[in-house]
Amino acid sequence: MNREKLLALNNYGKLSILSGMISLLPIVVLPFYPHEVRYAIDFIVPAVLAFAVGWLFCRFGSTYQPSRFYTVTQRKSTTFVLNAWLLNFILGAIPFVLGGQLPPLRALFESVSGFTTCGLSTINVAECPMIFLFHRSLMQFVGGFGFIVLFLSIVNDRQSMDLFSAEGHPDKLRPNLQITTRTILKIYMVLLAVGTGGFAVMGMPLFDALNHTMCALSTGGFSTQLASFTDYSSAMDLWLVLLMLLGTTNTVVLLMAAQRKFKAVYKNTELRFLLGVLVVSLPIMMLAMHAVSAMSFGENFVYSLFNAFSALSTSGFALGSYEQLPHVVIFLLTLLMIFGGGMGSTAGGLKLTRVYIFLRTEFKAVYDRLYPKRKITRMHIYRPTGADTIKDEEAVDAVNYVSLYIIMYCIGVLLTLIFSDCQLHEAMFEFASCLSTVGLSIGVTAPDASAGLLIVEIIGMLMGRLEILPVLYALKYGRDGIADLINGRRQNPQA
Question: How many other C-beta atoms are found inside a 10 Å radius of the C-beta of residue 428?
């Protein structure tokens, strides 16, 4: 086995050990709920399996350092990223099965929904033990970071930047990538403490406060309550809106705010575009709700702001059922879910920077057709790193990704209609929630959902979290690898 394969095996071993540590974390709640100690084995088993596999890989992969001829390819990076997510999906599902909480497919669905920060669920949280509720929230918090961020915070090699980019992280906060990943972790740990403390001061039980904060910062949406956030006060609703805003904001922007660079934060195009989308959609939603409900203006404002922000930030927390909402509100929420949150954040969807570049590109194309070109115009954007020109390749990439996203969305809506007994607007809402990793549901995803629907949504959540292309690349490389193996054996039957 050559050095590159040994290094890859060693990295997979370290990844497996890290995943085992994540699997073991939920048992920290047992001292507070000792009557649930019988569930400890359900988390110890997958952790021990991951540790054992990781130890073997590290042992036989050794610690060879790559030579100067070591090559980093897109194939290696995307395959490693996809395998990291698949491994943790399986490890996250095992405790639900061993603990008798869910059958295998629904357990896998819950795990994928957790780690992708989607938040769609088929579990009855009213009857779910506390350790499993914490397990769900922890999956979303870890998934919001991304496994590669956690991996690179302890491992650094020449493949690191490619892994970081392949998982969908566009910006480095610091010149050194390992320092960048550790800075991201520090930022969110501070926000976790502040968010939990804020809820606790308002009277929320500490366990609920911790879980809701983890899921808000990861824009996940799992709740410890059956009715999500319906039964909490308006003050808590607004505090959660703030946490969702922090979760959907680019990490670089958060760092600039912490450094009191408020002028740069104010100029950030993505953040201003987010506020603009809310300013346009919020009054329409409030008018639609006013026509069908008896809420006061203040109640209507909080309700509409919460739901609009939950959709746009791709957090997925809910205030009440969406099944009886006016179709105008359903349409707006679907559109906001598709838009998604900020680049470099824990949010899903198309991402607001990409939507902004797409709209600017299309507007410029129409304008250039209507008016003769007298001079070359450039489109500009204010990024976290400063003012910049939108390059032609970037505009093309944005248009291509939006087109690919729409194609995947249409296919998903069609399959949702096939595998569930729902109407068109319900399928459009549900799969937008799935592909944008939001978690809001109009009632289509239920405990009695068909196996076909759950599989479609699992694929949609994975595609949405890894932004489609890395998954397609990894599948292509996997197919090519199998083909090469078969062809090699044909040429050398004794191999």
Answer: 23
Give dist(CA 113, CA 107) in Å, integer.
10
Token code pair at residue 298? 């203040």
| Token reading at 68 | 């100067």
Cα–Cα distance measured from residue 58 to residue 447, given in angstroms and rounded to the nearest whole number = 40
Contacts of 174 (CB under 8 A, 6+ apart): 180, 183
Residue 166 and residue 148: Cα distance in Å, rounded? 9
DSSP letter (8 states) at residue 65? P
How far apart CA 230 and CA 218 sit, in angstroms, is: 20
Whether the Cβ atoms of residue 187 and residue 249 lie closer than 8 Å to each other: no
| Distance of alpha carbon 209 from alpha carbon 230, whole angstroms | 15
* Tokens of residue 316, six digits: 């997925």
Q: Which of 463, 429, 464 is nearest to 445 (CA)?
A: 429
pLDDT per position as a tens digit, 19-71: 999 999 999 999 999 999 999 999 999 999 999 999 988 877 665 454 444 44
Q: Name which of 176, 169, 156, 20 is nearest 470 in CA terms.
A: 169
Residues 103-141: tens digit of each pLDDT: 999 999 999 999 999 989 989 898 999 999 999 999 999
What one-character DSSP code corresponds to residue 26? Answer: G
- Say if residues 15 and 79 touch (Cβ distance below 8 Å): no
pTM for this one?
A: 0.87
The closest of 146, 218, 216, 105 to 466, measured between CA atoms, is 146
Residue 303, token pair as written in the block: 């309700």
Query: CA-CA distance, 427 to 418, in Å (whole number)?
Result: 10
